[in-house]
Design brief:
The structure is a homodimer.
Chain A: E1 2-6, E2 14-18, E3 24-27, H1 35-40, H2 42-57, E4 65-66, E5 81-85, H3 89-98, E6 113-116, E7 128-130, E8 137-138, E9 141-147, H4 156-160, E10 163-170, E11 173-174, H5 178-184, E12 196-197, E13 201-202, E14 211-212, E15 215-216, E16 219-224, E17 227-233, H6 242-249, E18 259-262, E19 271-273, E20 276-278, H7 286-297, E21 310-315, E22 327-333, E23 348-349
Parallel strand pairs in A: 5-18, 7-22, 17-23
Antiparallel strand pairs in A: 1-2, 1-13, 2-3, 3-4, 5-6, 8-11, 9-10, 9-18, 10-12, 14-15, 16-17, 16-21, 19-20, 21-22
Helix pairs in contact in A: 3-7
């Protein structure tokens, strides 16, 4: 089933069930009002929501209304945990190669995971507010899952079955603040502001065969300022599946229902073309594009995002339909009384992204 | 006023008001059932709780019952954010000096802060469960605050007034897992398991003049296996007050009500005694004791905690009474069907801690 949270002026919003084709929605208030409530009592509440989902899909729901992603908060608007992995080792290889650094051997066997802020998630069309363009504003196209309770020391096979819901994430990063924070050794804080999520979170069965071994075998389309810049495949080259990421997290602690885990930037390997490296599937963050430029020409030319720039993330299912709806955001200054209108999606392709 | 959360089998527990002398409690269920509810609607709910607090203190509350810290969860049992500082620069200096490392200059001007897990806080007498004694189990005696909403870019003066509640924290650390995580640059994850909090959280006015400029000018007593090992003063040598910590956090993000910020290990400077360094106030974590040993004798002899070891943290107010109640925990293996009884507090002094 597909679930979303509608804005209602509160911090938790209102749980809604969304039709498979993302056209209709229905308040779930007679079953559960908040997403966390569902996650805390999944076995009792989810079958009732599934019933509503079937009714909605069949066109028989009596109080259905047109689904509007602009009304959405993050599916889980605030969470008790947000931990983001770096599960596509190619992303790490690329960014490190561009600065002439080796990838430590244990990066291939031991997942990277950072703890992020989860008190203030962004909805899919909320502006990315940033006090300064000088911070190096970047998007990161990712998958994310919401879990059930996971006991300490759970192994990766059992951890996969704790995945309740799957979404897209834009793990906004402030690149120019990262080096200083990395040097301090305490991880990211200021360099990782609020993360945005797709309008809809879906149960794993919605993905059919595309969900396998804790990986989503579908393509993420990233559209930057109306130009398609990334068409990376998310399954094959995910070095650590969500089972491994969650098991890594559970090594020394219990993970509680409603914890959100991110995949890290979805990234595909380069191919050789006329003796040169080429990335035909493009990129899911600007830092990767800049790394590619450095490796090819010795300098980075693509700038990070400025006020007014837009980013759109979408993933289509095996049936060709949008699975999660679009993350569709604009970068904005901190003080900006009038929320800017969203850019219309463009079909323009970037030369980096060829099907 | 003083507030606690009683265990009731749910993840959020039941909000109770606790008398100033920590002897009596009263359910707040007719006002608010959960701590987060209070934090989300502070201006409406807190005056009603204050009224109950006054009634309880005057002995006129009709359904008061004896307060039992063993019934307590963390005052806020799960939170949307837990960020822990390292605000006592002496702690950083000491630990770095012991391994021959310099303290970078910006550590004196720019607070250190790491994002921790907040989905599974421990109550004050919950066991510290750890899968292996080889992980280097350590306590860290700290102060922590719970905030109101804090808008992005709020300055440190305004940030201080966002402090709603103050507590003690035991930021349990797995020392032997830290070097590898630090080397990876993504910060702590496995090395920082669940954090425990004092039975009671108090509003700043409870501290009287001891609360000043975002600092608590009181002494934390740390008792390890029945021996008093630390009597560190928490106010004077706190390099960054809670205002600075929160403002640092709010540089690139909004902070939402119910966010918890920790001070880092409370630590006091050495004094010179017969030409040698001495730490008459002792220590608030074993890593510091080991650093002192390294500096004095070239080797670390105090072991980290083993199963069955106990740690007790307490802070007394200007009136000599316990402000927050005791954190009183025992280290235990993961599988341990019978929760161990808590050790009786001992009055034995360690030679390191002289009044």
């Amino acid at each position: 089933m597909k679930l979303a949270t509608y804005k209602d002026g509160t911090k938790d919003g209102q749980l809604v069930v969304v039709s498979k084709d993302l056209t209709q929605a229905h308040y779930a208030s007679h079953i559960a009002t908040k997403m966390q409530q569902l996650l805390d009592d999944w076995n009792f509440i989810s079958p009732q929501l599934e019933d509503l989902y079937q009714t909605l899909n069949s066109g028989r729901a009596r109080h259905a209304f047109p689904f509007d992603p602009k009304m959405c908060m993050a599916p889980l608007p605030r969470a008790y945990q947000w931990a983001d992995g770096s599960a596509y080792i190619n992303h790490v290889e690329l960014v490190r190669a561009a600065r002439g650094a080796e990838v430590p051997a244990n990066f291939y066997t031991d997942p990277l995971l950072y703890q992020g802020g989860s008190d203030d998630f962004l909805g899919p069309t909320d502006p990315i507010r940033c006090p300064s363009e000088e911070f190096g504003i970047d998007f990161e196209g990712e998958l994310a899952v919401i879990t059930a309770d996971v006991a300490m020391q759970t192994d990766s096979n059992d951890a996969v079955s704790a995945v309740r819901l799957i979404m897209l994430a834009n793990d906004v990063s402030l690149r120019n603040l990262i080096p200083e924070e990395m040097a301090k050794g305490f991880g990211f804080y200021q360099s990782k502001p609020a993360t945005a999520f797709s309008p809809v979170a879906v149960t794993p069965d919605e993905l059919g065969e595309a969900w396998s071994k804790g990986r989503v075998h579908l393509t993420l389309t990233c559209t930057l300022n109306g130009r398609r810049v990334g068409m990376c495949e998310a399954g094959e080259e995910m070095t650590f599946g969500f089972g491994e990421l969650i098991a890594h997290a559970a090594k020394t602690r219990n993970i509680r229902a409603g914890s959100v885990f991110g995949s890290g930037t979805i990234s595909n390997k380069a191919v050789e073309k006329n003796g040169k490296k080429d990335w035909p599937k493009g990129y899911s963050c600007i830092a990767e594009k800049r790394a590619m430029e450095m490796l090819l020409s010795g300098q980075m030319s693509t700038p990070f995002m400025k006020y007014g720039d837009t980013i759109r993330l979408e993933m289509k299912g095996l049936d060709g339909q949008s699975v999660f709806g679009c993350i569709d955001q604009r970068v904005a200054p901190l003080q900006d009384p009038e929320p800017p209108a969203l850019a219309e999606p463009s079909s323009g392709d970037d030369s980096q992204a060829k099907k």
